[in-house]
Amino acid sequence: MKKWNFYTSKEIKPEGWLKKQLEIQKNGLSGNLDKMWRDVKDSAWIGGEAEGWERVPYWLDGFIPLAYLLEDADMIARAKKYIDAIVANQKPDGWICPCSDEDRATYDTWAIMLISKVLVVYYECSGDERIPKVVFDVLKNFYDLLKEEKIKLFGWGKYRWFETFIAINFVKERFDPEWLYDFAKIIAEQGQDYNEVTKLWERPLNHWKFDTHIVNLGMMLKAEAVSHDILGEEYSDNAQKLYDILYKYNGTPVELFTGDECLSGLSPIQGTELCSVVEQMYSYEHLFAATGDRKWAEKLEVIAYNALPATISEDMWTHQYLQMSNQMACITFPGRSLFRTNNSEAHLFGLEPHYGCCTANFNQGWPKFALSAFMHSENEIISSMLLPSQLSCEKADISLDTEYPFTNKLTYTVNAKEDFEFAVRIPSFAKNLSVDGKGEKTANLSFSFKKGEKRTIVIEFETDPVIEKRPHGLNSVKCGSLVFSLPVSYEKKMHEYERHGVERKFPYCDYELSPTSEWSFGLASDKIEIERNSISSSAFCESAPAVVAKVKVKKINWGYEDGFDTVCAKIPESVKAQSDEIEAEFIPYGCAKLRMTELPFAE
User: Fold this and answer.
1) Residue 29's closest CA among 358, 336, 288, 497?
2) Cα 506 to Cα 559: distance, rounded to the nearest angstrom
């Protein structure tokens, strides 16, 4: 097992399409929530009267690395304003959350876990020397209260106990106090063991439970990776066992698990919550760092390049609470909700459809993914995620010029400051690999550099399109890490209004998307042609995608789900062809806001 360490925003800088993606995020909701959204602008965390639990920490968890990756002085100052207020309000005993002393026993400690993680993120970005002691005091107070049984883990804290270990490992590395080991043990013992509830994952129910809550499960996958060292346990790859069960009974074509809001089975018209998308990404980032196993990096790629951009508008001013694989409309359901425990608006694009947790939490997705571009271990550096970016560290300056995953060419420019080994993670699906024009048989690429050596490395490979079988006789189209969907054209209906004191107005209003093109098709051939274009205004541009898949289809009678006229049926009513072959352009799932992703073969 190979362990890698993360670099920080001081060492990694985004380039190319990735930098553009972060700039779009900065100019959208992420960069403006503190100016217009009550739960951040007037939060109890900074002395206001609005929500004082998870939403400000969620927002800061993405806003902070976004600010530092883009070196935006205004955003950095605004992040510091929030951190300064939070630190200033810390009690003498270390308690940091905005609640009264008498309310501590009923205050869900998930917020302590989350803010301690955020403080670690802030330190790694800013180097603010106040922060290690602040985090130390937060955890020591948390430990004392648990040890003295004045509080205990319950609710969200019980089911997200492993999140504490981001800060625990931070304190261990810098202080290594004896009490920390007992604290880690108490947290693990009071936390939920998900191995005990896996039977609940096999059959979806219209019943809300912590054990099947999709965000808890996305977070949970990294539990062993972040906790086994300090707990003195041997790593067992328990995440793979749990992943296999989740995916077998709830998997989607883009490496998600359905959950609207709890596990929802294998239907292509059940949804997946956006919070779980970014939390699953974060888990895979830590799983790859802890193990070096490229399977986690490949799962991370698929989510990042498909599920994340699909459920956020191109300008990043609006997002969905839930995305669906087969999503031929995003219109409020005129009666009972299709979703198991979420309301009829959860799939709309808006400011805070259904709940506002995703409004705050989706911000971490792209910045933390960017920070996974390079990792290091002893005398080795790895290009872990093939993202256009620059690394400047003690050992070397390395830049990667690429439009991956839209093309399969990687150009590295390396300037060695010391002797070191440089590894490049090549995906398992890569074919006809070449380095500097010469064929390469091994995918485990490694290059030795001597101090003062400068070199350019050009790596190229091919990816073949494939048809992947899905449940219910359906299929999806995939090439490399990109999943392709049949896009559905649409009209947007804008809604500006106020509800519960929260105003929606352009550009952060709500939108319904009504289909204006045919969507009822089946595949007519397994022959797929990939056509690659240059990246236009953004990497996930819907009107001008960087890559398309030309697929032969035929019209079929798909039909609607019983009781709905804006939701396609889970399974087509008939797969008998109703037209001759038509050549359709499938576009990346991440580009298509309305789409059909899981299709049958037409007979």
Assistant:
1) 358
2) 35
H helices within 207-293, ranges in order?
214-220, 223-231, 238-250, 274-291
* DSSP tally for the chain: helices H, then strands E: 18, 25
Q: Which of 373, 371, 372, 449 is nearest to 414 (CA)?
A: 449
Nearest alpha-carbon partner for 306 in 526, 591, 11: 591
CB 204 within 8 A of CB 338: no
| Spatial distance between the Cα atoms of 235 and 229, rounded to a whole number of angstroms | 8
pTM of the full structure: 0.98
**Peptide bond before residue 148 is cis, with ω within 30 degrees of 0:** no
DSSP state of 307: I
Any idea which residue has 């995608």 for tokens? Answer: 545
Average pLDDT, the chain: 97
Contact predicate 218/274, CB 8 Å: no
Contact 399, 15 (CB under 8 A): yes
Smallest CA-to-CA distance from 260 within 196, 170, 324 is with 324
C-beta separation of 266 from 471 below 8 A: yes
CA-to-CA dists, residue 267 to 163, 245, 340, 599, angstroms: 30, 16, 12, 12
Residue 462 to residues 125, 225, 433, 516: CA-CA distances in angstroms?
A: 36, 32, 7, 35
Tell me the per-residue pLDDT of 455-496, one tens digit each, with 9 for 90 and over.
999 999 999 999 999 999 999 999 999 999 999 999 999 999
Peptide bond into 465 cis (omega under 30): no
CA separation for the pair 115, 380 (Å, rounded) = 32
Instruction: Give residue 175's pLDDT.
Output: 98
Question: DSSP assignment, residue 362?
Answer: G
Instruction: Give CA separation, 67 vs 72, 73, 76, 140, in Å.
Output: 5, 8, 6, 30
Question: Which amino acid, one-letter code, is at 183?
Answer: F
Tokens of 580: 């001759």
CB atoms within 10 A of CB 234: 6
Across the range 1-30, mean pLDDT stands at: 97
Count of residues making up the chain: 603
Task: Name the pLDDT band for 63 (thresholds 50, 70, 90).
Answer: very high
What's the CA angle centered on 582, arms 578 and 586, to 5 degrees?
115
> Which is it for strands 547-555 and 521-532: parallel, antiparallel or unpaired?
antiparallel
Q: Reduce the DSSP state of residue 152 to 3 states and report it.
A: coil
- How far apart CA 524 and CA 553 sit, in angstroms, is 5
Contact present, 269 and 326 (Cβ < 8 Å): yes
Structure confidence at residue 1 as a pLDDT band (50, 70, 90): confident
What distance in Å separates the CA atoms of residue 200 and residue 212, rounded to the nearest whole number? 7
- Tell whether the model's pLDDT for residue 531 goes beyond 90: yes
DSSP 106-127: GS-THHHHHHHHHHHHHHHHH-
CB atoms within 10 A of CB 543: 10
- Please answer whether residues 120 and 135 qualify as being in contact, where contact means their C-beta atoms are separated by less than 8 angstroms: yes
Q: In terms of C-beta density within 10 A (0-12 exposed, 13-18 middle, 19 or more buried), how is residue 437 classed? A: exposed
How many Å apart are CA 249 and CA 450, to the nearest integer? 50
Buried/exposed 308-328: b ≥16 CB within 10 Å, e otherwise? bbbbbbbebbbbbbbbbbbbb
pLDDT of residue 57: 98
Give the CA distances from residue 241 to residues 245, 262, 367, 468, 601, in Å, rounded to whole numbers and listed in that order: 7, 19, 29, 22, 32
pLDDT score of 517? 98
